[in-house]
Amino acid sequence: MKRILAAGLVLAGLTAPLAAQEVKELNFGIISTESSAGLAKSFEPMLKDLEKAVGVPVKAFFAQDYAGVIEGMRFKKVDLAWYGNKSAMEAVDRAGGEIFVQTTKPDGTKGYYSLIITNADNNAVNNLKDVVDCSKGLTFGNGDPNSTSGNLVPSYYVFALNKVDPNKCYKRVVVSNHEGNALAVANKQVDIATNNTESMDRLKDVRPAEAAKLKEVWRSPLIPSDPLVWRTDLPADMKAKIYTFFLTYGRLGSDEEVARQRAILAKTSDGWGTFVPSSNAQLYPIRQLELFKTRLKVEASDKLSADEKAKQLKEIDAKLAALDEQMKKVPSM
């Protein structure tokens, strides 16, 4: 563990001194997968331990949607944050963010699945074919535009590949977070909605009656586990403290302390295990998926001239080829 930590600090450039203004407080951004009250209760114990480790107050930062946390990092109101992969990509590209660790499950697995769910009583929707049948007049709960599992993944695998535009296919489309969509389906306010296995696990824990009213009708390929992202301009000494905290949390210390920390992690979000090192390379598959989705959209467009379509497709293919070369040199985490 010590060798891994030391190597990670060197790779992250955290062992060299860096003159910077003193950090007096850290704001930890938390994406809005459910109510802020539920998330605050879930994250508070871990953030209290982080506060002790880094020596400055650590405050949770909430926003109405994922974009609010991304913008918070962009304007330096958020110092580090828990994101999904899609929102992490936006934070890296637009808000000066950098992935430094990745979450895992208590059993050590590093991934989860996007879902389409419906009410257990809904006999008209049982599989993907039913989901994309526009003659059914369904109502649809979509996820936050910056959500990986609630928006990006289903927008490609469910809709783009089947040449379906949700806004044209469904009688009504609403947008909410994972918890909001699950409750809307359970209460029969919408017929189908996006979600993911992590949020379903948490719903079974906090609202088992509503969870029992849901059934899964589609599941995606495996999605990489969520990353933690910090601002690249944080002082190196603070980054070193943060990095050390997350990589040793639930790993080092007395048996009692390790057990206490792992119990805290198991109740954080949908239930986490220990953290593992990561980097922006984790986003390669997500970038690839975004480009594939865009390519299908351009290819199917009837608003572009043949020349313009060919030009855009050539540009997208060049980006995909460059990304493929990059992935060969630096494998995704």
From TrEMBL:
GO biological process annotation, one example: organic phosphonate transport
Q: Does the keyword Signal apply?
A: yes
**Signal peptide start and end residues:** 1-20
Gene Ontology, cellular component aspect? ATP-binding cassette (ABC) transporter complex
State the source organism's domain of life. Bacteria
**Any matching Pfam family:** Phosphonate-bd
User: Which InterPro entries does this chain map to?
Assistant: PhnD, Phosphnate-bd
Q: Which UniProt keywords apply?
A: Signal
What family does the entry list?
A: Belongs to the phosphate/phosphite/phosphonate binding protein family.
Q: What is this protein called?
A: Phosphonate ABC transporter, periplasmic phosphonate binding protein
Which species is listed as the source? Answer: Ancylobacter novellus (strain ATCC 8093 / DSM 506 / JCM 20403 / CCM 1077 / IAM 12100 / NBRC 12443 / NCIMB 10456)
